[in-house]
């Protein structure tokens, strides 16, 4: 399970990798440029270790749809998961909490990483219905999505599964409609600016008051625009630092629009649970923090 950004200078392409000595198959299909406003990538993830693997995912603006094809992940929102936290195929909305993931070393999944507007199109429901939760696909998807899930499960090789997923995602995304245009515009302006566009200014662009924008935005996206802006800024800081051997944190704080480096450190604590240097040191060879 991974939400790594394919635009973040990721050094891994398709292939088999060994994070901390544990073999994992990771295949990625980045979204075509014209579709990236709706999804970023489709991932095949297949653990072949047979011993426990643990990951931490920071808060992000990704809405994942997971089709489990092995033993289910154990997932805890803002806490380490227990034995009762097994999650088979599900969709998960936005959250400001970090996510703790544990597996037996035999987990496998097909994962579609959607933007909130893309999740609205693919699942045909407001993303707020998924906020801070992991909802079984049977409880949040229609018959067409569940039929796609079954066809993925019936296939036996990853490339065929990825081909099927790409075709299905293209069909669903291009045949559906967006949510409220003003909300979609506001979301894209916030994310496109790396969280630095003013919420009041965006409201003026669409002819809404800040209060009305915040209300409608939260109804459809699941988090307030200010929180989405904070996560967008934090995500950009991660992207700038992720593959630098010695990140200049002061420059990153300035580039991302933080008031100062102390402000950035506080935000890393909120969304990653670690100070920036500790977060950077925690990354394994996949670029994913572990616990």
Instruction: Name the beta content range.
Output: 15-25%
What about the largest sheet?
7 strands, antiparallel
What is the CATH superfamily classification of the largest domain?
Jelly Rolls
List unreliable stretches of 5+ residues. Answer: 4-18
Mind telling me which CATH architecture of the largest domain this is? Sandwich
User: Number of helical segments?
Assistant: 11
CATH class of the largest domain: Mainly Beta
Helix content: 40-55%
CATH names the topology of the largest domain as: Jelly Rolls
Strand order of the largest sheet: 1-2-3-10-5-8-11
Structural Rg: 18 Å
Describe the protein.
The strands form 2 sheets. A 7-stranded antiparallel sheet has the order 1-2-3-10-5-8-11. A 4-stranded antiparallel sheet has the order 4-9-6-7, with no helix packed on it. It is α+β, with helices and mostly antiparallel strands. The chain is built from 11 helices and 11 strands. Helices cover 40% and strands 19% of the residues. It folds into 2 domains: 15-175, Sandwich (Jelly Rolls), CATH 2.60.120; 181-282, Arc Repressor Mutant, subunit A (Orthogonal Bundle). Helix 3 (143-154) runs antiparallel to helix 4, helix 5 (181-192) packs across helix 7 (210-221) and helix 5 (181-192) runs parallel beside helix 8. The longest helix is centred in the middle third of the chain and has 18 residues, at 158-175. The chain has helices at 116-123, 137-140, 143-154, 158-175, 181-192, 199-206, 210-221, 225-242, 249-255, 261-271, 276-282, and strands at 15-17, 24-30, 39-47, 53-57, 63-68, 73-77, 86-87, 90-92, 99-103, 108-114, 134-136.
């Amino acid at each position: 399970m991974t939400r790594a950004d394919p635009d973040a200078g990721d050094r891994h392409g398709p292939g088999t990798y060994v994070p901390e000595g544990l073999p994992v198959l990771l295949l990625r299909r980045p979204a075509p440029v014209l579709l990236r406003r709706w999804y970023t990538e489709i991932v095949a993830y297949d653990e072949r270790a047979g011993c426990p693997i643990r990951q931490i995912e920071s808060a992000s603006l990704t809405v994942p749809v997971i089709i489990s094809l092995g033993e289910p992940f154990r997932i805890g929102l803002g806490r380490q998961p227990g034995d009762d936290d097994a999650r088979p195929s599900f969709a998960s909305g936005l959250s400001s909490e970090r996510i703790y993931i544990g597996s037996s070393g035999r987990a496998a999944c097909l994962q579609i990483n959607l933007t909130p507007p893309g999740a609205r199109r693919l699942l045909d429901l407001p993303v707020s219905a998924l906020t801070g939760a992991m909802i079984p696909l049977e409880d949040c998807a229609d018959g067409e999505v569940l039929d796609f899930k079954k066809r993925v499960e019936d296939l036996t090789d990853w490339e065929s599964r990825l081909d099927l997923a790409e075709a299905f995602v293209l069909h669903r995304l291009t045949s559906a409609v967006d949510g409220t245009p003003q909300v979609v515009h506001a979301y894209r302006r916030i994310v496109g600016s790396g969280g630095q566009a003013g919420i009041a200014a965006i409201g003026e662009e669409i002819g809404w008051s800040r209060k009305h924008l915040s209300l409608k935005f939260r109804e459809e996206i699941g988090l307030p625009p200010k929180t989405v802006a904070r996560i967008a800024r934090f995500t950009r800081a991660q992207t700038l630092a992720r593959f630098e051997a010695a990140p200049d944190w002061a420059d990153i704080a300035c580039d991302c629009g933080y008031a100062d480096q102390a402000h950035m450190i506080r935000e890393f604590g909120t969304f990653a649970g670690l100070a920036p240097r500790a977060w950077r040191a925690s990354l394994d060879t996949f670029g994913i923090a572990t616990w």
